[in-house]
Specification:
heterodimer; A: alpha+beta; Arc Repressor Mutant, subunit A; 8 helices; 4 strands; globular; B: mainly alpha; 2 helices; elongated
Chain lengths: 163, 64
């Protein structure tokens, strides 16, 4: 049986349309960009390395005190580690992180950890009926109704001019 | 002499740290504990791991 509330099912089964499709929505354009530039690979690495319940704060990494105890799901990872995990270059990773941020999938926190390393907020967690339930910002985007008309009609005009 | 017993989670994080850093002490600049050394709690496994396993099973069944 297919469980359509499964978060992995939701992510893998997003319908991706061509950019010249007249019915394309704002949300689908965001997904197109994220899947075609490799930003999704970076996001998956970040999700894997999120702070967990039994993390104990060490000197320079006060992530439990400042984030997890306030119901935020965060990930603090160096760009060097991301390049190792994804085989992308240094500059590309920085571009992809900006892209994820613009899409609303991640937020950068104001507080930084040791050596000026950034902290990224991926979502929040709550307890419903004594059950742990994480919610990622990316999943919230998936749930937006897709019947809204596109605001990006200018894209096609520009494309016609180029051709 | 007072003995402080480690919890299971502390023990597993230490083992993971040793494996990753090839046995460097925690005071070494390259031997610090990192968030990915910490194992998932039962709640987190119940959500993340089970959802992923469920999805993989679903794909495998679709190929039969």
């Amino acid at each position: 049986m297919i469980n359509k509330d499964n978060s992995f099912y939701k992510e893998y089964n997003v319908s991706i349309k061509a950019l010249d499709d007249p019915d394309i929505t704002e949300q689908e354009i965001i997904y197109n960009e994220i899947y075609t530039t490799g930003a999704y690979a970076v996001f998956r690495v970040m999700r894997k390395f999120m702070i967990k319940k039994y993390w104990k704060d060490t000197a320079g990494y006060p992530l439990m005190e400042k984030f997890y105890s306030k119901n935020l799901l965060v990930c603090s990872i160096s760009i060097r580690k991301l390049t190792k995990a994804t085989n992308f270059g240094n500059q590309k990773i920085q571009k992809l992180l900006i892209q994820l941020e613009n899409a609303g999938w991640i937020l950068t926190a104001d507080t930084k950890v040791k050596d000026g390393q950034k902290v990224y907020v991926l979502g929040y967690w709550s307890t419903i009926d004594n059950k742990y339930k994480p919610t990622l910002y990316s999943h919230e985007i998936i749930n937006i109704p897709t019947k809204v008309k596109s605001k990006f009609e200018g894209i096609y005009n520009d494309y016609d001019r180029m051709v | 002499m007072d003995k402080k017993h480690k919890t299971m989670m502390e023990f597993i994080t230490e083992q993971n740290r040793f494996e990753r850093t090839n046995g460097l002490p925690a005071e070494h600049p390259n031997g610090e504990v990192m968030p990915w050394d910490v194992p998932m709690s039962s709640e987190e496994i119940a959500y993340w791991k089970k959802e992923e396993e469920e999805y993989i099973k679903m794909i495998q069944e679709s190929f039969k």
